[in-house]
Design a protein that fits this description.
The complex is a heterodimer of chains A (367) and B (263).
Chain A: E1 14-18, E2 20-21, E3 24-25, H1 27-43, E4 47-53, H2 61-64, E5 70-75, H3 84-98, E6 102-106, H4 111-122, E7 126-130, E8 132-134, H5 137-147, E9 165-170, E10 175-180, E11 187-191, H6 203-208, E12 210-214, E13 225-232, E14 245-249, H7 257-271, E15 275-278, H8 280-284, E16 305-309, H9 315-321, E17 326-331, E18 344-347, H10 350-366
Parallel strand pairs in A: 1-4, 1-6, 4-5, 5-12, 6-11, 7-11, 14-15, 14-16, 16-17, 17-18
Antiparallel strand pairs in A: 2-3, 8-9, 9-10
Chain B: E1 2-6, E2 9-11, E3 17-19, E4 24-26, E5 32-34, H1 36-52, E6 55-61, H2 67-76, E7 80-84, H3 94-108, E8 112-116, H4 127-135, E9 139-149, E10 153-160, E11 163-170, E12 173-177, H5 189-197, E13 201-203, H6 205-208, H7 218-221, E14 225-230, E15 239-241, H8 246-259
Parallel strand pairs in B: 1-6, 1-8, 6-7, 7-13, 8-12, 9-12
Antiparallel strand pairs in B: 2-5, 3-4, 9-10, 10-11
Helix pairs in contact in B: 2-5, 3-4
Classes of the chains: A alpha/beta (367), B alpha/beta (263).
The complex binds flavin-adenine dinucleotide (2 copies).
Amino acid sequence: MNFNSTDIHSFRDIWVFCEQRDGKLMNTDFELISEGRKLADERGSKLVGILLGYEVKDIAKELGGYGADKVIVCDHPELKFYTTDAYAKVLCDVVMEEKPEVLLIGATNIGRDLGPRCAARLRTGLTADCTHLDINTKKYIDFLSTSSTLDVASMSFPMEDTNLKMTRPAFGGHLMATIICPRFRPCMSTVRPGVMKKAQFSQEKADACQIVMRHVELSPEDLKTKVINIAKEAKKMVDLIGADIIVSVGRGISKDVDGGILLAQKLAEAFGDGVVGGSRAVIDSGWLPADHQVGQTGKTVHPKVYVALGISGAIQHKAGMQDSELIIAVNKDETAPIFDCADYGIAGDLFKVVPIMIEAIKETKNA
Amino acid sequence: MKIVVCIKQVPDTVEVKIDPKTGTLIRDGVPSIINHDDKTGIEAALQLKEQLGGTVTVVSMGPPQADVALREALAMGCDEAYLVSAREFGGSDTYATSGILAAALKKIGYNIIITGRQAIDGDTAQVGPQIGEKLQVPQVSYVEEVQEATEEYVVVKRQFEDGYHIIKIKTPCLLTAIAELATPRYMSVRGIVEAYEKDVKTLGFEDLKDDLELDMIGLKGSPTNVYQSFTKEVKGAGTILKDLSAEEAVQAIIDKLEAKFII
Ligand SMILES: Cc1cc2nc3c(=O)[nH]c(=O)nc-3n(C[C@H](O)[C@H](O)[C@H](O)COP(=O)(O)OP(=O)(O)OC[C@H]3O[C@@H](n4cnc5c(N)ncnc54)[C@H](O)[C@@H]3O)c2cc1C
Ligand SMILES: Cc1cc2nc3c(=O)[nH]c(=O)nc-3n(C[C@H](O)[C@H](O)[C@H](O)COP(=O)(O)OP(=O)(O)OC[C@H]3O[C@@H](n4cnc5c(N)ncnc54)[C@H](O)[C@@H]3O)c2cc1C
C-alpha cells in the first residue's frame, strides 16, 4: 500500500474513532464528535466518524446529530468485542487508505490500548490523554492567556500554523504541555473522557449524515489473542463523569465512616440527583469502591456543583475536580489547600456542618 | 522462560515543583524512584519465575543514574539488568523510546515482556503497546491478574472501566501491569548485597544501531514535540467562611446558590 506518514500534504479531514460497547455508543463519542466539529470548522475540512463493531450500522446516524458529516462503519463478527489485534488491524487499514489528517480517540481503557498500537504501526506521533485541542493559533493564544501563568503578551507564535495543538497534563497535573506532531500524519491524540463539551443534538443533522459501510478483512492469523470470558462488574458503576452534582468525601470522615458516607448521600440527594465520590485515601481504605475515585488516577469530573467534605486538596485530587463549575469545601482546617480552588468554603467539622446544610437546602427548596 | 521487565526511573511527582514563569520543571533535589506500575511488573515477573522457572531481566533506558533503579530491581530478586543509554537517545518521545527499547529487547531475547501500564511522569501509557507493535508480538494491557501461565500461553484478566475480559494470549507476548496485579516485595538484605556484586550491562547506540530507525530516535527524530509547557492558572480562592457559626456559614452559601439558581 502506498502509505507514507511523512507525505503530510496528502492527508485531509478530521476523524474520530467512535467506541461502542455492547452495541451502544459511548458519551465520549459525542464529546469527541462535538469537539471534532469545531476543529473541522477551524481547518475548513470534513468531520468523519469511524465506528467498528458487529451489527452497529443503526447506531451510526446518531453521531451525525453531534456534527459528523460522515460515518464509516466497519462491521464484522470479530469486532463485536474489543481486541487489540482486530481493532488495530481494521482501523489502521482504513486510515492507510483514506489518510485522515487528524485522528482523535477517546482516552478510555480501550483507546489507550488501541491508540499507541496504531500510532506505532502508522509511523506517527500520538499525544496522550489530551484535555484541550486547538488548530487556530489565535484561539490557542486566547486559551493560554486565560488558563496559564505564562506572560503570553511577550511571546510570539507562528499565526499561520495549522498543526493541531494538543494540550495535556503531565507530571501528575503539575505541568501542562502542548504537543504538536508537525512532520507526520495522521496527527493522533487520545482525549480524556468528560472534558470536551457535548454539542446540542440535532435530528436534522443526524438525518443528513452519510453512512458508509466498509468491507472488513480479518483472517485467523491476524488474531493472536482470544477472549475466553467477558464479565461486567456485578455492581453498576457510579456515573461520576455524567453527574451534575457530586459530593465527595475524604479521610475527614474517618471518625465515623458509615455516617460520613450517609451524610454525603443525603446531601447529594438534597441537591438533586447527585452522586457520591471520594478521594484516593477513601478508596485505598476500602470505604468506597474504586470507581468512585476522583483525581489524577481516578476520574476527571465537571459537575455543576462539587462538594468536598474532609478532603485536604492534594494536587492529584484537584487535577480531577478543579474545573467543576462551582466548588464547595468543608474542612476543619482553614489552611487546607482545597480552599484554594473552592468558590465557597466552610472551615468547620463536616459532621456538624453537613446536617445543617441538608436541612437548609430542603427548606429553601420547599419555600 | 525468559521474562523481561521494562522499568523507568521517575521523579517522585509528589515533590516536583514547576517554575511558574517559564513553565519548566525543577528536578533538582527531587528523589528518583522506580515507577510504581513497573515495580508491580517486577513482582509479577518474579512470581511467574517462581512458578515456571527461568530468569527475570530488567531493562531501563535513561541516563547513567538509572543504574540505581536497576540495582534496586536486582535486590528484589531479578537475575540480570541492562541499562540502555546513549546521548543519541535523549529527548525521545514514546515512539522513539519504544523503538529503542524494542531494539534492546531483540538483543536481550524474551518470552514474556512486562511493562508498567503508565509512568507517573510522562503519564502517556503508550510505551508498552508501542513496544508490542514494534516487536510484532501481541499485547494485553491493564492486566490485573495472571490466572494461568505455561511456556506456550498465558491467561490474564484484563481490566475495563465497566468489567473485565479473560484473555488467552500466545507467547511471546507483552503485558502491561496495573497496581492490582501484585504487591511488590521489599528488597532483601542479601539481595542488596548481591545487587552490588552483579554487573549492570550497558547497551549503547553502537550496540543497537542495526535495529533502530535511525531517523526516528532522540529529540530530533521524535514525531511529537513539546510546543509549549506551562502551569495552570489557579482559580482564585473564593470566600472562606470561618468566623461564623455553622448555621450562619451554611445560610450564606445557600443564599448564594439560590441567587445562582442552583437550588
Ligand atoms: C501518583 C499519585 C496519584 C494520586 N491520585 C490521586 C487521585 O486520583 N485522587 C485523590 O484524591 N488522591 C490521589 N492521590 C493521593 C493524594 O496525594 C492524597 O494523598 C489524597 O488525595 C488525600 O486524601 P484526603 O484529602 O481524603 O486525605 P487527607 O489528606 O488525609 O485529608 C483529610 C482532610 O480532612 C480534614 N478533616 C478531618 N476531619 C474532619 C472533619 N471532621 N470535618 C472536616 N474536615 C475534616 C483534614 O483537615 C484534612 O484536610 C495520588 C497520589 C499519588 C502519589
Ligand atoms: C510534559 C511532557 C509531555 C509528554 N507528552 C508526550 C506525548 O503526549 N506523546 C509522546 O509520545 N511522548 C510524550 N512525552 C515524552 C515521553 O514522556 C517520553 O518518551 C517518556 O520517556 C516515555 O513516556 P512515558 O513516561 O509516558 O511512559 P509510559 O508510556 O507511560 O510508560 C509505560 C511503561 O513503559 C515502560 N517505559 C517507559 N519508558 C521507559 C524507559 N525509559 N525505560 C524502560 N522502560 C520504560 C515502563 O514499563 C512504563 O511503566 C512527553 C514528555 C513530557 C516531558
